[in-house]
Amino acid sequence: MIKFANVRIENLPWQELVKRYDRLDTFFYSDPPYHGHPDYKHNLVLEDYIEMARILSSINGKFILSINDHPDMRKVFKGFQIQEVSLMYSLGKKATKANELIIRNF
Ligand SMILES: C[S@@+](CC[C@H](N)C(=O)[O-])C[C@H]1O[C@@H](n2cnc3c(N)ncnc32)[C@H](O)[C@@H]1O
Fold first, then answer.
1. What is the pLDDT of residue 91?
2. Nearest CA to ligand 1 atom 6
3. What pTM, to 2 d.p., does this model score?
4. By the 8 A CB rule, do 49 and 35 touch?
5. Strand-pair category, 62-68 with 27-30
6. pLDDT, one tens digit for every residue, the chain (106 residues)
7. Angle at 48 between CA 66 and CA 61, to 5 degrees
8. Minimum-distance ligand 1 atom for the alpha carbon of 32
9. Separation of 33 CA from ligand 1 center, angstroms?
10. Distance 94 CA to ligand 1 centre (A)
């Protein structure tokens, strides 16, 4: 059995969520759709990531964002700490190697 205390589940555009919950002691983990992979019902375009970088550059809290390692993403988020990680995508029939970027403001 899993019990959650003081957990709130929201379904909001990310901009609204950040506006509503940003505090000095807030931590955001952001897992947006991969750039260039329109896999979801709601996907993002380059301008959305640019807006994300702009908004995240002025929040009071801390964030970590994970995204696929793409030159556009390195450029858009260059003002933050960027760490490259290698991992295996294991959801498909055959596991494939991939690089992701872990981006943070601390
Ligand atoms: C990589 S998935 C995240 C999956 C989630 N972290 C999980 O583990 O189940 C990206 C998610 O961002 C959502 N998304 C797309 N545009 C959005 C927006 N403008 N605001 C909030 N979420 C959005 C997509 O619908 C998708 O569910």
1. 78
2. 31
3. 0.90
4. yes
5. parallel
6. 989 999 999 999 999 999 999 999 999 999 999 999 988 999 999 999 999 999 999 999 999 999 999 999 999 999 999 999 998 888 778 888 889 999 999 9
7. 55
8. 10
9. 6
10. 24
What DSSP assignment string belongs to 5-57? SS-------HHHHHHHH--TT-EEEE-PPPTT---SSS---HHHHHHHHHHHT
Q: Which of 12, 19, 31, 100 to mutate to test the pocket of ligand 1 (most atoms within 8 A of CB)?
A: 31
Burial class (CB in 10 A: 0-12, 13-18, 19+), 57: exposed
How far does residue 69's CA lie from ligand 1's centre (Å)? 18
Q: Which amino acid is at 93?
A: K
Cα separation, 13 vs 36, whole angstroms: 20
Pick from 55, 58, 85: nearest CA to 69: 85
What letter does residue 86 receive in the DSSP assignment?
A: E
